[in-house]
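User: I'm writing a short report section on ligand binding and want a predicted complex to refer to. Could you take this sequence and iron/sulfur cluster and write out the structure as tokens? A short remark afterwards would be nice.
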Amino acid sequence: MAGRVLVTDIARFAVNDGPGFRTNVFLKGCPLACAWCHNPETIAPQPEIYWKRRLCAQCGRCMDACPEGAVFPPVDPLEAMSEGSRYHKIDRSRCTGCMACVQACPYGALEIVGRPMSVREILDEVERDRAFYMNSNGGMTLSGGEPTMHPEFCIELLEEAASRSIHTCLDTNGFCAPDLFESIVKRAGIVLFDLKHLDQAPLEKLTGADSRLILGNLERIAARKTEIWVRIPVIPGFNDDLEFHQRASAYLSRLGESIRRVDLLPFHNWCQDKYSWLGIDWVYRDTEALEPSFLEVHAEWYRRRGLKVTIGGSGFEAAQEGQAA
Ligand code: SF4
Ligand code: SF4
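Assistant: Sure. The structure tokens for the complex follow:
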């Protein structure tokens, strides 16, 4: 038994993370730290606290409850406004995660991020959507964070899902020891593989990752005839230039039939609130979202190479093709 891992969310009726309706299970913890990350609450492996400023009444009970003196005292709202509305702050370097402040808050302004769950507890929740899978060729998508950070848990969850006849997708950044990676991947129905860049320098600068490990894993599982949907988050100033997509399309077309499709995922900033709730100053805070239409030219490179490409990653077309087959 693989015990329990922290889950940040189980999102129902997702339509962009594999075929049909998906139930997305987000495991907490990631070995990378992508500067644009759209799920910042999944990066740290330990439980964290959201502080929602708009719900905070500045009553100060969290400060009284904290045994570490990690909560800054609330101050007068007018004074706070002159300080840029930073009228409550957790010093996260002093926080031990005891969650006494969360229990003490009477207004729901503090929230624990990361719920320990077992394989069985997750699947019992996933099972509630079974009827929607049957009508859409859907299933469960295991995401994060990086699910392969919890290898034993992943294997058990994917095997148990298969034994319950639940289709699975594994959403991964590929940053995992090769043998371990293969043993996890072979248990998933489809691998959703995040390709962020081909070059080491920009990849390391913005994610901390080693491109050789990631590309090596992609090439290895492609050679094993795994069904792979490559997902490219298109980030302004990082990989939104046409030259990158010209090279990426050539590279992916060389990997053969295992690459069933390429999803171009335009950068968005809907996650700004999460950064604010976690007390993180997000470097992309003032960056404009990319319009899907901006990527039509980029998509053309993949089409020219004979690759199926989407902008946004809807899985419904693929589900219908599966039903027709
Ligand atoms: S979790 Fe515990 S240590 Fe951290 S801020 Fe809250 S009360 Fe303080
Ligand atoms: S206990 Fe809740 S409402 Fe009161 S100051 Fe702390 S976060 Fe704000």
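A remark for your report: The chain is about 35% helix and 20% strand. The longest strand covers residues 4-14.
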